[in-house]
Amino acid sequence: MLRYAPLFSVRNWRLRSQVPYWIDFDAVNRILRSRFIGRVTDDDLREVYRFGQEHVAQLDPLSGITDFSEATAVAFSPQTMRDLARTKPIMADKSRPVIFIAPTPEFFGMARMFELEGGETRPNLRVVHTATEAYRALNVSDPQFSPV
């Protein structure tokens, strides 16, 4: 069973008017995952990216997943995706895979834009449609995520 935790305290999460996003970590396989649920905004993407930059050193993930499976609306701009793709990668080690799960055409297109813009600094970034594809790409069969 997969477990999820809000990025910020429950109090702050309830105050948010937009999408809740969840950050969790599989300590066995060392996968850092962010999940978006509902409407995804520019601010949501920036906050999750900033969290990753601030906490990746202490977690030392071997791979990362950004999961848009339960996101319902693209409310962020292509420019935000390009800007984030041009920033320093969350994981400095280019050999570590990063997977975007993007099941809808809108999210898949935005994720591919990120992949193309950031491909030079993220050569192991892939965009897939399902979690099954992502876990297969990481050679993981039963990840056990816990709240960060």
Full CATH superfamily name: STAS domain
Quick one: CATH class?
A: Alpha Beta
Radius of gyration over all CA atoms, rounded: 14 Å
- Distance from N terminus to C terminus (CA atoms, Å) equals 16 Å
Q: Low-confidence parts lasting 5 or more residues at pLDDT below 50?
A: 1-19
Strand proportion, as a percent range, falls in 25-35%
* Biggest β-sheet description: 6 strands, mixed
CATH domain fold name: Transcription Regulator spoIIAA
Helix content: 25-40%
Averaged pLDDT: 88
Spatial order of the strands forming the largest sheet = 5-4-3-2-1-6
Strand element count: 6
Structural class: alpha/beta
What order do the SSEs take from the amino end to the carboxyl end, as H and E? HEEHEHEHEHE
CATH architecture call: 2-Layer Sandwich
Task: Give the count of helical stretches.
Answer: 5
**Per the principal axes of the C-alpha atoms, what is the gross shape?**
globular
Q: Which short descriptors sum up this protein?
A:
148 residues; Transcription Regulator spoIIAA; 6-stranded mixed sheet; 5 helices; single chain; disordered N terminus; globular; alpha/beta; 6 strands
